[in-house]
Design brief:
membrane; mainly alpha; 3 domains; 308 residues; globular; 14 helices
């Protein structure tokens, strides 16, 4: 299957996402007591536009939309309102009525995502879209909900996840930007004036801590790996006799320790707060911090012992 066909299929799913975001904006505008409804609706409209028409409008305009969304978020103009939530009574009633059948759509979604991603030429992104549709069909067969509840619940999840839902996309773009702009070279030159060459322990510590800190900044160890390996890992570990396989593997898993410590890792540390309606904004990070610190120390020791 050609790349053009795959991109066209992806565009269909992006348009569907954009239409859902427009529906969320519509419901917000319908709210009569939403004191920030115009700012909130504008955020979702701008995001919907990038999903639906992003490839067809000038890049400068896409950039302006992103900046505008950032400003709306910065000045706290995006809030949750006018969602249709499930009451405890309705949830308990549904659980008693359907029992374990409620897990069938989720299981089908997971199996379909793995199958399409690994055993077809469609790939992971399209696999998620296909599996979502199959999961929705399974939900209709098992639960038989009214059509409007599908839209209500999609809107509820969209608003509860909120602005952090687009953070992974921004961080991925930031990683590319850092690599292209030569941030790694700048870091390498700065580090070389501070760290003594030939000290294996300091080199291992700098590599792991660099991965942790950059991962905390970017929210993604994969994006940090290229920059930190080029700027610290190669000159201060691998060039000093460190095994590149062992050092690279430990640097990557060490970077994931930084994921435990940052709100920039939205999928892991911010979305649970929104979905579970936790009162403490950084509750997940505080719970993970002791384990993360212990694992960072262990990674430095393992790199020092195993890589050299």
């Amino acid at each position: 299957m050609s790349e053009g066909i795959l991109n066209n299929i992806l565009e269909i799913f992006y348009i569907l996402i954009g239409l859902q975001l427009l529906y969320t904006a519509f419901r917000i505008l319908k709210s009569s007591d939403h004191h920030k409804k115009y700012g909130t609706a504008l955020f979702w409209i701008l995001l919907a536009t990038t999903f639906i028409a992003g490839p067809y409008i000038p890049n400068a305009l896409n950039g302006a939309f992103i900046i505008a969304m950032g400003l709306l978020t910065l000045f706290k103009q995006v809030t949750i309102k006018n969602i249709v939530d499930v009451t405890d009574k309705e949830g308990n009633s549904g659980a008693q009525k359907y029992g374990n059948k409620l897990f069938v759509p989720a299981v089908i979604l997971a199996i379909a995502a793995i199958a399409v991603s690994n055993w077809t030429p469609l790939g992971g992104a399209i696999g998620l879209g296909v599996s979502s549709i199959l999961g929705l069909i399974a939900a209709y067969i098992v639960i038989k909900p009214k059509m409007r509840y599908v839209f209500y619940d999609s809107d509820r999840l969209t608003q509860q996840i909120g602005t952090v839902g687009i953070l992974p996309q921004f961080l991925a773009a930031l990683g590319v930007l850092f690599t292209v702009s030569g941030v790694g070279d700048v870091i390498s030159k700065g580090i070389s004036t501070v760290l003594p060459e030939g000290n294996h322990l300091i080199g291992a510590a700098a590599y792991i801590l660099g991965m942790v800190l950059f991962t905390m900044l970017m929210g993604n160890a994969f994006a940090a790996f290229t920059v930190i390996t080029a700027s610290i890992g190669i000159p201060f570990v691998i060039a000093q006799g460190g095994d590149p396989v062992i050092a690279g593997a430990l640097a990557m898993t060490g970077g994931f320790c930084g994921t435990l410590l940052t709100p920039m890792a939205a999928n892991f540390n911010t979305l649970p707060v929104a979905l579970l309606e936790m009162k403490e904004e950084f509750g997940v990070i505080k719970a993970q911090a002791p384990v993360a610190i212990i694992m960072i120390i262990i990674h430095i020791a393992l790199m020092y012992v195993w890589a050299f």
